[in-house]
Amino acid sequence: MVVTIRxxxxxxxxxxxxxxxxLSGCTTVMSSxxxxxxxxxxxxxxxxxxxxxxxxGAPAFLLMLDGFLARDPNNAALLVSAARLNSSYAGAxxxxxxxxxxxxxxxxxxxxxxxxxxxxxxxxARTQTYDAFSAWIxxxxxxxxxxxxxxxxxxxxxxxxxxxxxxxxxxLSRAKALMVRxxxxxxxxxxxxxxxxLGVFETLLPPAMGGRPEVGRAHxxxxxxxxxGRNLMAKVMFAERYARMMFERELHDELLxxxxxxxxxxxxxxxxxxxxQQRARAxxxxxxxxx
Amino acid sequence: xxxxxxxxxxxxxxxxxxxxxxxxxxxATLSPEGSSWMKAMRAAGEQVAxxxxxxxxxxxxxGGVMGxxxxxxxxIRFRQLHGAALTGxxxxxxxxxxxxYNLPMVFENLGEVDYVRARMDEYILAGLKAHGxxxxxxxxxxxxxxMSNVDDASVEGARRQKVWVPDGDPGTAYTAQAFGIAxxxxxxxxxxxxxxxxxxxxxxxxxxxxxxxxxxxxLKYLVDLPLMYVYGTFVLANDSIEGLSEADRAVVxxxxxTGLAGVDAGNRKDHTAALGALGRQGVKSIEPTxxxxxxxxxxxxxxxxxxxxxxxxxxxxxxxxxAHLTTYxxxxxx
Lengths: 291, 334
Prior knowledge:
The complex is a heterodimer of chains A (291) and B (334).
Chain A lengths: L6 H18 L2 H20 L4 H21 L4 H17 L4 H22 L11 H7 L8 H16 L5 H4 L2 H14 L3 H14 L10 H14 L5 H14 L3 H13 L8 H21 L1
Helix pairs in contact in A: 1-2, 1-3, 2-3, 2-4, 3-4, 4-5, 4-7, 5-7, 7-9, 9-10, 10-11, 10-12, 11-12, 12-13, 12-14, 13-14
Chain B lengths: L8 H9 L5 E6 L7 H16 L4 E6 L7 H9 L5 E5 L22 H21 L2 E16 L6 H5 L3 E4 L3 H9 L4 E4 L4 H7 L4 E4 L1 H6 L8 E3 L4 E10 H5 L3 H35 L3 E3 L3 H20 L5 H17 L3
Parallel strand pairs in B: 1-2, 1-3, 5-6, 8-10
Antiparallel strand pairs in B: 3-9, 4-7, 4-8, 4-9
Helix pairs in contact in B: 2-10, 4-12, 6-11
C-alpha cells in the first residue's frame, strides 16, 4: 500500500510521540519505540510517490528525529535513520546550496557516529591516514553492511556536493573503499545500490586519467539486474554518467525512456524512483544540446 | 614543424552563402562533465550563443571522449573538431615555444610566474596564432612537486626511487634522466595501480592532479621544491572562426578569453587548496636543505641547456624569459 505522508500527519505523530516519551520515562522503552517509529516513518516515506508530500513533510520528521537523538544520542539505529534521511533529502529535495551543504554535513556526522558506536575501528575514519583507514576495511563483516553502507553513501553525497573542495575530493577513495567492501559483503543490499555507487565512482574520471567506464557500465548493469530492473535511479545514473561520457545517445535515450515508462511503485524504492523519473525528464530535455 | 591544414572549402562557402545559419564550433577536452572547467566553458558557451543571437554555438566533448591530445589535434586538422583544451606541451609541433614555461625548475615561486606571464603570454599566443591556432589564453594547473614514500629531499634519494614519467613524453623522460633518474614510463591511467603494486613509488605532479586522481592515498612525502610549472591552453583552429563575421568573432574571442582568465585565476586557488589538502591527508611536506636545492638546480640547468641545444624551446625565448626573471628577482632583493 502506498502511504502518503502529510505534514499534518507528522505533526500529529510528533505530538503523540512527545506524549509517549513523557509518559514512558524509560530510555530503553523510548529507544525501542522511537527506533521502530522512525523506521516505520522512513519506510513510509521511501514507499511514497508523492514527492511534494515528502518534500513538505520530511522536515518535520527530521526535526522529530533530532528530538529523539537529543534524548538518546548514542542510539545507532536512530543515527542511521537520521543520517540516511538527511542525506537523501539534501540530494533529492533541497535546492539551496548552503542548506544542502549543512544537511550533508549533518548526515555524514551522524553516519560516522553510528559507525563509531557499533564498530570501534571506524572511529577515526575521517581523520586517520589512508593506510590506517584501509587496514580495517577488509575486517568489516556482513553484520556491518548497514552501517558501512550508510557511512559510504552519506560520504559520497557529502563529496558530491563539494566538487570544488579539495579536502572533500581527497576523501573520495575512502567512500569508494567502503562501498567496494559493502558490495563484496552484500551486493544486493538496498536494491543493488552498492553497484550503482561503484558505477558512479568508476565514471568520475575519463579513461585517459584512470576512469574505467566499462567497469562502471558493468556495475550499473549489475545494479539494474539485482533489482530486477526496478531500481530506476541505477538506470538514470547509467545514462547520466556512462552514456553521456561515452556519447552513446541511443543507450542514453533508451535507458531514460524505460525509466519514464516505468511504474515507480516498488516497496522501498517508490520515492527514489519518483526522483529518478524527475531526473530522467531533465536529462531527456537537455539531451539535444549535450549530444 | 608547420601544421598541415585541411580547409573544407565547401563548409566555408556554405557559411558565406548563409550568414544567418548557426556555426557550431566543436570543442574537445579531457575535463569531465561537472568539473569547474566544464562549468566555466558551458557558461561561456551559453553567453556566446546569447551574444551572437544563436549564430555561433559551442558544442563540447568532455571527458576525453574524443581521445588524447594527439587524437584531438588530428581531428582538428581534419575539421572534425574546431578547438580543444590541451596541455601546454601538446601544441609543440605547431609552435615549440608553447612549452617555454615547462622548462625544469625555471620558476622558484608563483610571483615569478605572474611577472613573466604578464610579459610573455602574448608572445606564446601570437606564436600559436601565426601557426594556425587562436589561443584564448593560458590556464595554470600549478607547480609539479616530487612526491614519494621516502623521507628524503635530495636528488640522490630520488635516484633510488622508481619514478614515474608520462608514457610517450620524451621531454619529461629526458629531464628525469638528466637528474640521473631511471624513469618508469606509464600512462596517467596506470599510475594509481602502479603506486599500489609498487611498480613505481615516486611521481612529480601538481597537487590538484595528485588529489583528483587519488594518488595521495599511496604517497607519504612531498618535496617542497617546485620542479615544473604546468599549464594548459584553449585553442580554436584559425580556420574555424575565419568564416564568422567580425562581430561574432569578437564575441567568441572576448567571452572565451574572459572565461579562461577566470579558470586561470580559479586554478591558482585550487593549487593552494589542493596543496593544503595533501598535508591534511597525511602527505608530509619535507624541506630540502640549501645544498640539496643547489644540486637540484644544477641538474635542472644542465637539462635546460640540453633542451635548448635540441631546440625543444628556442634560446631567444628562453633568454627573454630569464632576463625578465633577473629583473624580477632584483626587484625582490634576491
